[in-house]
Specification:
globular, 11 helices, binds 1,3-dihydroxyacetonephosphate, 8 strands, alpha/beta, single chain, 254 residues
């Protein structure tokens, strides 16, 4: 069966003390589930702390971004190998905030995707349309363009040990969740595009939904046939909410 995942994205939040309190509150309530992975993508400086706090829990630490470069004179950058070295297992690639606010292009996202894989990290490739693009009726075309930018250089290898996250930009941090039907429709487009490269691997690819996922809407989203879990921003900073989302996934597996 396809792997399911619920992954938190803390974004630019946290401190040593706040992280320890959040993980402790989460661990108190968290029960693992066969067939599903729970992860948290933390600011790079807190990865080593997260790896230690999450040791032996089955919860995977992850990074939120990585450098396109491998080593050398690139002041301020953090490479994929460094992230793996301090305990990251997952790495978000091409989040819409990186694309919109920090200028990550489709081509740069493809390079980062390859760097993550080469370092043994599982990339979580984010795709998604803006409100203007949805209203212009180009949602599917945008998502396919973003996927193709990664599939073109990496081919079939892009479908191995990777995760895709559909995050409509208009649903991120806005409280506006895509309906489960809207999510399912785009997830099906993503899987169909991947199937053109390799149908077997496309059938196994976890495709997560992200954008205002909460405990209250998770079960409905996760009930969709092509929604394999969630990438969770704001609600991952609240232990009770995040466990609620995780439990919505566990309930589907039990
Ligand atoms: P919110 O859950 O806060 O809408 O953020 C979604 C997201 O961007 C996860 O990567």
């Amino acid at each position: 069966m396809r792997r399911k995942l619920v992954v938190g994205n803390w974004k630019l939040n946290g401190s040593l003390a706040a992280n320890a309190a959040l993980v402790a509150a989460f661990r108190q309530r968290f029960l693992p589930a066969t067939g599903a992975v729970c992860g948290v993508c933390v600011p790079a400086v807190y990865l080593a702390q997260a790896a230690e706090l999450l040791a032996n829990t089955g919860i995977e630490p992850g990074a939120q971004d990585l450098s396109r470069e491998v080593r050398g004179a690139f002041t301020g950058e953090v490479s994929a190998a460094m992230l793996a070295d301090v305990g990251a297992k997952l790495c978000i690639v091409g989040h819409s905030e990186r694309r919109a606010l920090f200028g990550d292009t489709d081509e740069q996202v493809a390079v980062k995707f390859g760097r993550a894989k080469a370092a043994g990290l599982t990339p979580i490739l984010c795709v998604g349309e803006t409100l203007a693009e949805r209203e212009a009726g180009v949602t599917d075309a945008v998502v396919i363009r973003q996927l193709d930018a990664v599939l073109a250089p990496h081919g079939r290898a892009a479908l191995e040990n990777a995760v895709v996250a559909y995050e409509p930009v208009w649903a991120i941090g806005t409280g506006k969740t895509a309906t489960s039907e809207q999510a399912q429709s785009v997830h099906a487009v993503i899987r169909a595009r991947l199937a053109k490269v390799d149908a077997g691997l496309a059938a196994e690819m976890p495709i997560l939904y992200g954008g205002s996922v909460k405990a209250a809407n998770a079960a409905e989203l996760f009930a969709m046939p092509d929604v394999d879990g969630g990438l969770v921003g704001g609600a991952s900073l609240d232990a009770q909410e995040f466990v609620g989302i995780w439990n919505a996934m566990r309930a589907r597996l039990n």
